[in-house]
Amino acid sequence: MDVSRLSTATILPDTFQGARDIDITAQIGLIWQQAKAPLIVPLLKLSLAVCLAMSIMLFLERVYMGIVIVFVKLFGQKPEKRYKWEPFRDDVELGHSAFPMVLVQIPMYNEKEVYQLSIGAACGLSWPSDRIIIQVLDDSTDPAIKDLVEVECQRWVSKGINIKYEIRDNRNGYKAGALREGMKHSYVKMCDYVAIFDADFQPEPDFLWRTIPFLAHNPEIALVQARWKFVNANECLMTRMQEMSLDYHFTVEQEVGSSTYAFFGFNGTAGVWRISALNEAGGWKDRTTVEDMDLAVRATLKGWKFVYVSDLKVKNELPSSLKAFRYQQHRWSCGPANLFRKMAMEIIRNKKVSLWKKFYVIYSFFFVRKIVGHIVTFVFYCVVLPATVLVPEVEVPKWGAVYIPSIITLLNAVGTPRSFHLLIFWILFENVMSLHRTKATFIGLLEAGKVNEWIVTEKLGDALKTKLGTKAPRKPRFKVGGRLHLLELGVGAYLFFCGCYDITFDGKNRYFIYLFLQSIAFFIVGVGYVGTFVPNS
């Protein structure tokens, strides 16, 4: 058969025969019309139904936590009342031997800007000097920084502080590997509890006095977690957005978990563990990028309880560059999804915890907050909702497009009332970041290439103090990023096109304001511009 003699009639449907001489735009339009009814509309309706179902799940979770937190604030008792809590006092006969032995671990990796702050704060903790050991776990690869950290440790040794400078010849397991190696030293066997602080955390002197009594007087408690206090929240608009998200986590999520099920995710720092509970749970594992959450889940499956102390705050630093924040969010989104994949069946088969607690851990803690929350934010608000502009046959109910997201947003804002006027910026910022969180979530669920990627969050420390201490006028400043981000640019172009279609061709003008604003947010991130505008408080 002579293929060259085949007419276009055997290749293109009859509908397109009259379109051979029409320009490519018209042909694409014809193909779109042909595919829309049998393929696009049913697919979009299915996607919309799934997104609405996930939105309802997230909505119910937020409402549930909102109701619980109201009851906790109005009628609940503080942790010091729910559990036995008595301050330690000097015993004339026993002396300091009445105090438990405490290990303080500070994992580090090339922390040139903050090592002095964290070591100084740890050495300033108020506790009998013969009942505390400071352990600096330095994984730095820069010899100059290693020397600086070692000299700083020696300086505190000369002041009578029991501080150990520990290094290893590899970075296997990253932070989890460093903490695991630190627990192997012989002097750790003398310790009852271990407090952990990341390199940018600065606990107040009374930190141990307020946390250790929970562990000493309540043998069922494994972990006492403090809240984070952000020293650079006012640095720029991006840090204000982060503060809003994290304040909700600490104000609502951690408090609800502690008050109802005595379980929440360990934040990896600013907490104190009972060493026997840590060991019983299997110690530190580096199978995911959330070794802290991994340990917390394993400990709760052994029957241990956790306590969150919301009024105990530890100063720390938020990522102030978009690059650092993106890496952090990848780790925080990929890790939980990957841990859920690894532990779901283990949680279901566990015999030591109640059915309701299992349901809470699997459904609320993991599935809704760590998976559904990320996916629905991006897929619904940045893909499906804009697509309905192009396919008017698919209608989004007003409760799904307006009421539910509005209520969820308002409930999220309760953690940081001072930033309520920045709510629109927060929505746009969170939707942009949901692209990375969704991608990272699927990487974790599927155990794809970057599932165990660990990049330490950049910290500024003293440089940040100098920056914040300057009296320069507050003006918008922009810096061009190192490379274009094609995913953001692509999503931004898609949203912009949908907005133009909504206002020009469709004529319904349903979402064009949102679509234009959201496309601008994606473009700003996509071209690598980082705005450091400092908003008024």
TrEMBL record:
Keyword Transmembrane attributed: yes
Location(s), subcellular: Golgi apparatus membrane
The protein's name: glucomannan 4-beta-mannosyltransferase
Family label: Belongs to the glycosyltransferase 2 family. Plant cellulose synthase-like A subfamily.
Chief location bin: Golgi
Bilayer-spanning residue ranges: 46-75, 359-381, 401-429, 511-534
Positions of the Glycosyltransferase 2-like domain: 193-387
Enzymatic reactions: GDP-mannose + (glucomannan)n = GDP + (glucomannan)n+1
